[in-house]
Amino acid sequence: GGIVDEEGLYRALADGILSGAAIDTWYTYPPKGETVGAPSRFPIHELPNVVLSPHVAGSTWEAVANNAVQTVDNVAEWLRTGTCASKVDLRASY
């Protein structure tokens, strides 16, 4: 995808240069309204030395609760000081 050279990763795994990979985040997601789709333009998911998990690690009760606490803390800090630690900087494109 945008960060990982998927073709290079696929070839390194298929050729045994890398002994394995565990992947949670994918560049390609299913089309809107669908639940099934290939995770990559390359058949990484078909390799026996790859472990896949759905990109849902942030959906645990603990993660959602921590996100809520962080959001409340950021809003409170913004109201107190006019700034916060976890702010979006559109000029920096993030």
Write the layout of secondary structure elements.
Layout: H1 6-14, E1 21-23, E2 50-52, H2 61-81
Parallel strand pairs: 1-2
Describe the structure.
By secondary structure, this protein is mostly helical. It is built from 2 helices and 2 strands, in the order αββα. The protein has a two-stranded parallel ribbon with strand order 1-2. The longest helix is centred in the last third of the chain and has 21 residues. The relative contact order is 0.13.
Q: Can you describe this structure in just a few lines?
A:
With 94 residues, the protein is mostly helical.
Count of separate DSSP helical elements: 2
- Poorly predicted sequence stretches spanning 5 or more consecutive residues: none
The overall pLDDT, averaged over residues, is 85
Order of helices and strands: HEEH
Give the beta-strand count.
2
Tell me about the largest β-sheet.
Answer: 2 strands, parallel
List the defining traits of the structure above.
about 5% strand, about 90 residues, single chain, elongated, two-stranded parallel sheet, 2 helices, mainly alpha, about 30% helix
